[in-house]
Specification:
alpha+beta; Arc Repressor Mutant, subunit A; 3-stranded antiparallel sheet; 10 strands; globular
Length: about 230
């Protein structure tokens, strides 16, 4: 039998500014080297190594060695969900430059949330798939399901090959509602969410932005999302 969760342990790890900055930087689901995380957190490499060792020991981050370098990533979607949840209740940082303003706007419009899409365009995709009857109305934190044929010609679901998710298997739910911290409504997570992010990148609707997890909406993407309403 186990007692209540020890919230103080992950809260202590996340509560240090440099470690918090590293966790947010890893929210795009990719692995980053210690040197890049040190620069993002604004600390010296030895200090970054000490912080990363604590995050690994605490189970929030995993590490692997490739050649001479060690790469770090979030330990899984549960950690990403916890960081996103804290972002929803955390005070906003002051924007003091045009560059920060542009980044904040891109993050609100489109960004990666671990392995799936978030932001305004993610809500557009979710609303369109609900309207097509392919998925149920999303509830934050709850598993959903594909409820209709996702391969009907001419639909958004068919264009983005959502039927591939129905044919796949895995421990993760096919659909899960993930509360968007900027839009305050759930976007699509789960296997479908990960598939949709890969699909819109492959379609050229979005492009990754070096240095952060925001995604740039391309001209083709603006036309495609405009059709969704």
């Amino acid at each position: 039998m186990q007692g209540d969760a020890d919230l103080a342990t992950p809260a202590r790890l996340m509560g240090e500014p440099a470690r918090a900055a590293m966790l947010v930087a890893l929210l795009d689901g990719r692995s980053l080297p210690a040197s890049e995380l040190a620069a993002i957190a604004g600390v010296r490499p030895p200090t970054a190594s000490a912080h990363l060792a604590q995050l690994v020991e605490g189970g929030l981050v995993t590490d692997r060695r490739l050649g001479r370098h060690r790469y770090f990533a979030l330990a899984g979607p549960d950690v990403a969900d916890a960081v996103e949840a804290l972002q929803r209740i955390a005070p906003r940082q002051a924007v003091t430059s045009y560059r920060q303003s542009a980044t904040a706007e891109r993050l609100a419009e489109a960004r990666s949330c671990y392995d799936h899409l978030a932001g305004r365009v993610a809500l557009q995709l979710a609303d369109a798939l609900v309207a097509e009857g392919v998925i149920e109305r999303l509830e934050p934190g709850s598993a959903g399901r594909l409820i209709a044929d996702a391969a009907v010609p001419g639909t958004l679901a068919a264009r983005l090959r959502a039927a591939e998710v129905a044919a796949s298997a895995g421990r993760r739910p096919a659909v899960r509602g993930c509360l968007d911290w900027t839009e305050r409504r759930p976007h699509i997570a789960g296997r479908l969410g990960a598939h949709l992010l890969d699909a819109v990148l492959a379609e050229g609707w979005l492009a990754r932005v070096p240095g952060n997890r925001s995604l740039r909406v391309t001209d083709a993407g603006r036309a495609a999302f405009a059709e969704l309403g």
